[in-house]
Amino acid sequence: MAALIARSSTLNGVLRGSRHSVLLQNQPQFSQLHRAPAFRLMSSETQQPKYEYIVVSRPEPSVVLVTLNRPKALNALSSPLFEELNEALEQADRDDSVGAMVLTGSEKAFAAGADIKEMKDKQFADAYKNKFLEDWGNLSRLRKPLIAAVSGFALGGGCELALMCDIILASPTAKFGQPEINLAVTPGGGGSQRLVHAIGKSRTMEMVLTGRMVSAQEASDWGMVSRVVGEGEAEVVKEAVKMAKGISEKSQIAVQACKEVVNAAHELNLAEGLRFERRIFHGLFATNDQKEGMAAFAEKRKPNFTHS
Ligand code: CO8
After folding, report:
1. What Gene3D superfamilies does this protein map onto (predicted)?
2. 3-state SS of the chain?
């Protein structure tokens, strides 16, 4: 039976086994983790963390960090892993104390794709009837920003998972690819569509038709990732958490509105998009945060947003 227990009593256990424990303890706000008003679901009988394939932590009171945790399979994305991922991120999205989320993997692999061993015997009827992969796109519907911190392989579904995030930061070791062609299938998690928006048709065709892996630098030059940071996974996660913390200090209403208008550019033509952006802009004049933000600028002080 699952029971809610205070996260202060569980967090140490969760973090102790995590590769981020050093990073987390080095954060000045580490002690505040114990005061964060969040809870984790735990099994009361076993006292084990609820999740088997991910680790959820709070490197900052306002930032949730989700680490994919199937190291032996290079974080291959199985259905149970995705169920956990969706649940953890949706929970963070609903939590008023969370301003932004970070998703990462390991030094060797962000994720090496959908779990090929799980898929290999799948039949069309089962995939179609049971809407295989349909829930995997849930995280592209989160309202709060999600930042991918990518080291190592981000292949197939792993590359698509990164592309579902709002911002991608890459360590120099990151390698992006859509190698599904080698398995005689197409990308299935949005790669063929999102890549065209991000890097254009010719480069997408090259990635999808040849399966070639693209280096972090090349992905950055192509505009697929925001930038390449630091050396190794710890650095890229640290940078992503810093960015997430900075975003969580803004007005959360404005952050969600910005995310909504940028995402609309994928779906609307220019005239509709400009109209949509203007309407959202007009709407923000009804918020306390807009009044506070502009008053603070005029009075030369820091704004105190109430997210209202
Ligand atoms: N699925 C299942 N197991 C995997 C996967 C995978 N995608 N990738 C790696 N593994 C396993 C290996 O089988 C191996 O397990 P074991 O030790 O039991 O044999 C273990 O991880 C380590 O892998 P390797 O020994 O192969 O490690 P290498 O360092 O030699 O090679 C590579 C690393 C190059 C990443 C290699 O493992 C590889 O090519 N992996 C497959 C990459 C791939 O083809 N990905 C695409 C999969 S299809 C897909 O993603 C469809 C997307 C569907 C939509 C998803 C929506 C989000």
Report:
1. 2-enoyl-CoA Hydratase, Chain A, domain 1, Lyase 2-enoyl-coa Hydratase, Chain A, domain 2
2. CEEEEECHHHHHHHHHCCCCHHHHHHCHHHHHHHHCCCEEEEECCCCCECCCCEEEEEEECCEEEEEECCHHHCCCECHHHHHHHHHHHHHHHHCCCCCEEEEECCCCEEECCECHHHHCCCCHHHHHHCCCCHHHHHHHHCCCCEEEEECCEEECHHHHHHHHCCEEEECCCCEEECHHHHHCCCCCCCHHHHHHHHHCHHHHHHHHHHCCCEEHHHHHHCCCCCEECCCHHHHHHHHHHHHHHHHHCCCHHHHHHHHHHHHHHHHCCHHHHHHHHHHHHHHHHHCHHHHHHHHHHHCCCCCCCCCC
